[in-house]
């Protein structure tokens, strides 16, 4: 008969073995975000911090992006399993270039892209900005600027260079520039002004944002893993927007010390106020919702602008297989 100490040791060994087995059962997944850690990635950080990914059998390696990081290239090269795409152009660009990637969820119903103007000078609507100088970056010129040209008659002659420096805007009351709903307006307000902010998405711009992309190979060979990853990410976003965001914010500040509690609180408030994460289709089908109609609309506008061949198989850019199931809606408060 074994002595009591031997029995304790044996039980401890069994417990360690069980814990090790459980850890080994988790699927390792690498996610790359589209910029440095910020509130716009809050749902992914929340799902990591709150153990939601682990609950869904996933051991997540969350890698923030930045100016020198091209997550789309890393995804195509198989260096990461999922990437966060900033807009609907990226999935279509994959199709255009015959790269077998696919969008599996649109975590933002609205792209947070904005134009910003000063108050009191007549720049009180997007239509009023037609013909006026506007500071935008190179990516925007081949992005949502094409929508503004198509809908409002904006012209390339209006474009002025935007170098992500707020000083020219603050120094010139007639200046207009691009921005992100959760970023540049905050900095302008901190400088003592209340700017006019025009969310492009509220004018009919149908791009999704914070789009989860993965390979067609992963969807084909491990659909259950893709489903669990999407479900966990959706749950994380519900928790971040409607629950306690502190666990995620702590991780965000660890990865990106430039983020402050004040800025994170501001960003969450704006995402809720403008329905960036949860509005429209997501109110009925759940966060992450996508529809054929929106993808078609976006493609038709951009193909008319000459960005994509009109006969391109745009439907290959996305799948609705993993969304529109109302997952996580019970967490909405």
Explain how this protein is built.
This protein is an alpha/beta fold. The protein has 15 helices and ten strands. It folds into two domains: 4-109 and 207-331, 3-Layer(aba) Sandwich (D-Maltodextrin-Binding Protein, domain 2), CATH 3.40.190.10; 113-203, Periplasmic binding protein-like II (D-Maltodextrin-Binding Protein, domain 2), CATH 3.40.190.10. It has helices spanning 4-25, 42-49, 52-55, 71-76, 89-96, 138-141, 145-152, 167-171, 184-190, 216-221, 223-242, 246-255, 261-273, 282-285, 292-304; strands at 27-32, 58-63, 82-85, 101-108, 113-117, 134-136, 159-161, 176-180, 196-199, 209-215. The strands form three sheets. A five-stranded mixed beta sheet has the order 2-1-3-10-4, with helices on both faces. It has a three-stranded antiparallel beta sheet with strand order 8-5-9, with no helix packed on it. Helix 2 crosses helix 11 (223-242) and helix 2 (42-49) crosses helix 12 (246-255). It starts with a helix and ends in a 29-residue tail after the last helix.
């Amino acid at each position: 008969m074994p002595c009591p100490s031997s029995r304790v040791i044996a039980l401890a060994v069994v417990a360690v073995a069980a814990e090790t087995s459980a850890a080994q059962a988790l699927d390792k997944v690498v996610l790359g975000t589209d910029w440095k850690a910020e509130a716009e990635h809050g749902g992914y950080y929340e799902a990591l911090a709150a153990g939601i990914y682990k609950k869904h059998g996933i051991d997540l390696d969350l890698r923030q992006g930045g100016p020198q990081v091209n997550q789309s290239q890393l995804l195509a090269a198989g260096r990461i399993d999922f990437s966060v795409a900033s807009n609907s152009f990226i999935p279509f660009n994959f199709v255009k270039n015959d790269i077998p990637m696919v969008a599996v969820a649109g975590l933002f119903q609205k792209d947070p892209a904005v134009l910003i103007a000063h108050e009191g000078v007549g720049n009180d609507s997007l239509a009023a900005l037609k013909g006026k100088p506007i500071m935008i970056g190179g990516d925007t010129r081949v992005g949502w600027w094409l929508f503004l040209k198509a809908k409002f008659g904006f012209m390339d002659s209006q474009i002025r260079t935007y170098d992500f420096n707020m000083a020219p805007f603050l120094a010139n009351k007639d200046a207009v520039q691009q921005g992100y709903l959760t970023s540049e307006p905050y900095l302008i307000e901190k400088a003592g002004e209340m700017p006019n902010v025009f969310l492009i998405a509220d004018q009919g711009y149908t791009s999704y944002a914070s789009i989860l992309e993965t390979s067609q190979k992963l969807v084909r060979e491990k659909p259950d893993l893709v489903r669990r990853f999407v479900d966990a990410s959706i749950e994380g976003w519900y928790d971040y927007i409607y629950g306690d965001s502190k666990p995620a914010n702590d991780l965000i500040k660890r990865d990106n010390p430039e983020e402050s509690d004040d800025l994170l609180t501001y960003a969450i408030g704006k995402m809720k106020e403008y329905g960036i994460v949860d509005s429209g289709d997501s109110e009925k089908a759940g966060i992450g919702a996508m529809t054929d109609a929106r993808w078609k609309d976006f493609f038709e506008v951009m193909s008319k602008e000459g960005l994509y061949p009109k006969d391109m198989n745009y439907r290959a850019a996305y799948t609705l297989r993993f969304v529109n199931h109302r997952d996580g809606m019970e967490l909405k408060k």
